[in-house]
Every structure is written in C-alpha cells, then in structure tokens.
Design goal:
Helices cover 25% and strands 37% of the residues. By secondary structure, it is of the alpha+beta class. The strands form two sheets. A five-stranded antiparallel β-sheet has the order 1-8-3-5-6, with helices on one face.
Amino acid sequence: MVEELWIQTAGQGLYEFTGELERVVQRAGVQEGLCTVFVRHTSASLVIQENADPSVQLDLVNWMGRLVAEGDGLFRHTLEGPDDMPAHIKSALTATTLGIPILRGHLALGTWQGVYLWEHRSSQHRRSVVIHVGG
C-alpha cells in the first residue's frame, strides 16, 4: 500500500507526524513488515527523534543552524535566497528516507520516539511525504 501525506510547515523546525503515519499503517492492515517513508523535497528531511521534550527539537534546529550557517561565502547557489543552499546541505546531512519495522500491526518505535519532517527553509511550505507499507 502506498499513500501520500502533505505536511504544512511554518518555517524551520521539526514537525511530528507519527500519528498520521500510524494511521496509514493501521489502514494497510499489515501485522509484520516495513513502513518506508520518503520526503519528496531537497530542502527538507526526515528524522526519528525524542517526542517527550520539545526543547530537543529546538536544540537540534539551533545546532544545525550553527553547523550550516546562512550567508556562507562559499555558497554559489544563492538565487533562491540565503536559506536555500543551507537547506540543501542540511537535507544531505540527515535523511530523505526512513524504514520503520511494523510489529503486531504498529510502528515499532520506542517509547519516546517520534517521526518528524524537518523543514530547513525559513518560509512556510507544503511538503509531500510518500509512505509505503509492506508485509
């Protein structure tokens, strides 16, 4: 089964969609298998991260912003704004695809794990995430 989710973002940050992903797995009816998640963009990525304390997501965004700073003189790709090339680098450093096992009909995530779209651009976007559930 394949479904597409659309995630609306409001700028840089992590946007949890674990619940929506779990509902896709439930609709598929797979008891044991694999859920593959793919983001169809080059300036956003996917991560599995702690979902209990929101300061974790804020710290990740701040740390990544320091690692890949806007306005670096080495960047040649600047036509789409100062946040675009850093967004591409951040996406390359993280992941565009995740594979999550399905166990007893549910995502086999740990207690504090959530699935996030990581928006690397400053402005709002509507991001496409394709989900494949197989068993």
